[in-house]
Design brief:
Elements: H1 12-20, H2 26-44, E1 47-50, H3 52-67, E2 79-83, H4 110-117, E3 121-126, H5 155-162, E4 168-173, H6 179-185, E5 188-191, E6 211-216, H7 219-229, E7 259-263, H8 273-288, E8 292-296, H9 304-327, H10 333-343, H11 347-367, E9 373-377, E10 390-393, E11 396-399, H12 400-405, H13 410-413, E12 418-425, E13 431-437, H14 443-455
Parallel strand pairs: 2-3, 2-4, 7-8, 7-9
Antiparallel strand pairs: 1-3, 4-6, 5-6, 5-12, 9-13, 10-11, 12-13
């Protein structure tokens, strides 16, 4: 078993086996993680609300329940962090906004309820970009370099996981907000198929694009968490009433014969050289494991980002309309500017974007004929410095927001499942992510390919020196 000072680095899979065999107590594990939070979060600022007393009490109860032979499964006794968009009964859920600084929900959202029922230990709430509308998560930093942001909007989850301050975390993803912080922080994160996981009780950014999902340090841990989080919810009409497969059983390590699509256009355009090199090396690793690489073309991909912004910005403005009219000055400058823009969108622009979105879904459906998963860089870049506004590509500048959305938002528009796993580091020590995308409700193929890659590489085992 790992030494007491190393318990915070255990994966969920490792910790759950020790807990089930009663070689590790949930209280011991939770205390080790809380000590880690006390050690490093003063520099990272990932936690908005720390529930240390409540977490210890829950861990003590889990220990007693397991002692009585009432083990609930792999999440029983596992310390997790909750993005501050998710309602938690009796605990402030601020969405990292002044508008909700006093909001205390009376009930848990569906996902938090499911995690509690599975025996997970809620450590507290972690940062998000205000109302999830951005890729920053101020004031949080990535543990890989404190001059850089953890991306967002699930940046608190990404930073906390990378620094050993939780074993699993929840995220939400509207245009990359699980996958971008996963890539930037060197962890794993999956955006499930739209409708696979309930959004009930999670603050809305864009109702036609929002998804909720797990973040963790290994693909197996994603599968363990997703198995609990997924499923139809009568309280969320967008959830699909389709069976939830055994995600863990799908992790066979075998991908021989799997056909991996590699886009010839768009997804390798304007990419930092070290990102392109790392992803190309990852593709060779998948090929060496028996997968076939198949070139595919994504027609009209250059219109993806404008389509995305023409949907997410007016939908966000619609959701915030009343609050924005009454309390607009309480929003942060960047979110206020986006909502002001959304207020000026024409209905015709929004409807045209939705029609273009439907056409793009058909385009991607054609691209997936004959392949099992699609492989791309998660992001064209590594982490942004705090306060950085743009990236430079050749003779043009691209806003950080657009750069981080560019390779992620296509799969929000189409609702497809997509995972990010670490596949390398830049020369200055910043993580790089590989994105694997699947067909609707085929998270099993995505997780299987990601797990197979992870088994033959060690990128996910690297730890920041903080």
């Amino acid at each position: 078993m790992a030494g007491t000072n190393e318990l915070h680095w255990l994966s969920i899979g490792e910790a759950s086996q020790l807990i089930e065999k009663r070689r590790l107590s949930p209280l011991e594990l939770t205390r080790a993680v809380l000590e880690r939070i006390q050690e490093v979060d003063g520099r990272l600022k990932a936690f908005v609300t720390l529930l240390d007393n409540e977490a210890e009490a829950s861990a003590r109860a889990a220990e007693e329940s397991i002692r009585r032979g009432q083990y609930r499964g792999p999440l029983h006794g596992i310390p997790v962090a909750i993005k501050d968009l998710y309602d938690t009964a009796g605990v402030k859920t601020t969405s990292c906004s002044k508008l909700r600084e006093s909001y205390v929900p009376k009930t848990d959202c569906t996902v938090v309820r499911k995690l509690r029922e599975a025996g997970a230990i809620i450590l507290g709430k972690v940062t998000t970009h205000e109302f999830a509308f951005g890729f920053d998560s101020r004031p949080t930093r990535t543990p890989w370099n404190l001059d850089y942001t953890p991306s967002g909007s699930s940046g608190g989850s990404g930073s906390a996981l990378a620094a050993g301050m939780c074993l699993g975390a929840t995220g939400s993803d509207t245009g990359g907000s699980i996958r971008a912080p996963a890539a930037v922080n060197g962890i794993a994160g999956i955006k499930p198929t739209y409708g696979r996981v309930s959004k009930q009780g999670v603050a809305v950014l864009s109702w036609s694009l929002d998804t909720t999902g797990p973040m963790a340090r290994t693909v197996k841990d994603l599968a363990l968490m997703l198995s609990v989080m997924a499923g139809h919810d009568p309280l969320d009409e967008t959830t699909a009433d389709v069976p939830v497969p055994d995600y863990v059983a799908a992790l066979t390590g075998e991908i021989r014969g799997m056909r991996v699509g590699v886009p010839k256009n768009y997804f390798f355009d304007d990419v930092q050289p070290h990102v392109a090199e790392a992803v190309q090396a990852a593709l060779k690793t998948l090929e060496a494991q028996g997968a076939s690489l198949v070139e595919v073309t994504i027609p009209d991909a250059e219109y993806i980002v404008p389509i995305f912004f023409s949907i997410v910005i007016p939908e966000a403005a619609s959701y915030h309309h009343t609050a924005f009219q009454e309390r607009g000055q309480e929003y942060g400058d960047d979110v206020r500017a986006l909502l002001e823009t959304g207020e000026m969108f024409l209905a015709t622009t929004y409807i045209t974007a939705q029609r273009a979105r439907a056409a793009f879904k058909n385009t991607l459906r054609e691209a997936f004929r004959g392949i099992n998963v699609l492989a791309t860089p998660t992001l064209p870049v590594t982490a942004a410095k705090a306060g950085q506004a743009t990236y430079r590509f050749g003779d043009r500048d691209e806003p950080v927001f657009a750069a981080f959305a560019r390779f992620c938002c296509p799969f929000n528009l189409t609702g497809l499942p997509a995972v990010s796993v670490p596949c390398g580091f830049s020369p200055d020590g910043l993580p790089i992510g590989l994105q694997l995308v699947g067909k609707p409700f085929d998270e099993t193929s995505v997780l299987r390919a990601a797990d197979a890659f992870e088994r033959t590489t060690d990128w996910h085992t690297r730890r920041p020196q903080i």
